[in-house]
Amino acid sequence: MTRCSKGFGLVELLIALALSLIVVLGVVQVFIAAKNTYLSQNAAANMQEDARFVLSKMIKEIRMVGMFGCLETIIDSSRQRDFHASQQTPILWDNGGRQLTLVMSDVGSNGDKPDWTVLSDCRAHSTAYSEGRTPAAGQQAFPIRRLTYRFSNNQLLMKGGAAAPQVLVDNVGAFDVSFGLASTATDLAASRYSSNPPDPALIRSVRLSLTLIDPSRRVSDQTFNVVAALRNRLP
Questions:
Q1: Which of 1, 30, 167, 221 gives the lowest tally of CB atoms within 10 Å of its CB?
Q2: In what helix (H) or strand (E) does residue 45 lie, and over which residues does it extend?
């Protein structure tokens, strides 16, 4: 090559291509890492949002468990005479079937018929009737609803009344319920937890545990725990 010749030789060109390839691979790796981080954070955020929706809904309903109107003594005039049985066990956890049953004053506003309606003058008389009922003069109507939550096939299902079960959340790995129990019926604070309380009168709170999984396995399973205190003393 003469002194007047200018340009790159083959060796210089190969070195430049190799360095460029290394830089491109580095940029690609950074992009892939950033994308994976975004996807994992988005998956974790979705799981947290699902858990927040489900658990906040259940807490709202658990706090109303055992609320049947303004008087304790209620005459059962329901169609199957099944109101008193539900009144005695307003919260029930089937550990084998993974099903939670709640009976409480209706806090929904979706227009569905309640399971029972308690009509009361809030002085001396209270009567429970099946489904909806219009109060007479001087009476108040308390709609009572029974809801069931069931964990099945990686889904948490909710059922109310005669309606078909609805899926609240998918990709559920586990669902568990335990009860905070007082030492005696007069104690206000819970001293221990049990999934099978010997006496409903000892229940002071309910602990919900919900485990969600990411089907794409971008993030590990996340378990969410929340405790709801009962506002109404159970029988």
A1: 1
A2: helix 10-62
Collapsing DSSP to helix, strand or coil, 25 comes out as: helix
- Based on its alpha-carbon atoms, the radius of gyration of the chain, rounded to whole angstroms, reads 30
pLDDT digits (tens, 9 = 90+) for 158-188: 998 878 999 999 999 999 999 999 999 889 8
Beta bridge partners of 145: 104
d(CA 127, CA 139): 11
Which whole-number Å values give the CA distances from 14 to 8, 23, 231, in the listed order? 10, 14, 77
Q: What is the DSSP string of 55-90?
A: HHHHHHHHTTBT---S-S--EE--TTS-HHHHHH-S
How does pLDDT run across 85-108, given as a tens digit for each residue?
Answer: 999 899 999 999 999 999 998 755
Q: How far apart are CA 75 and CA 127, in angstroms?
A: 5
CA dihedral sign of residues 153, 159, 165, 166:
negative
The SS3 call for residue 142 is strand
Tokens describing residue 158:
């909710």
State the average pLDDT over residues 60-72: 92
pTM summary value: 0.83
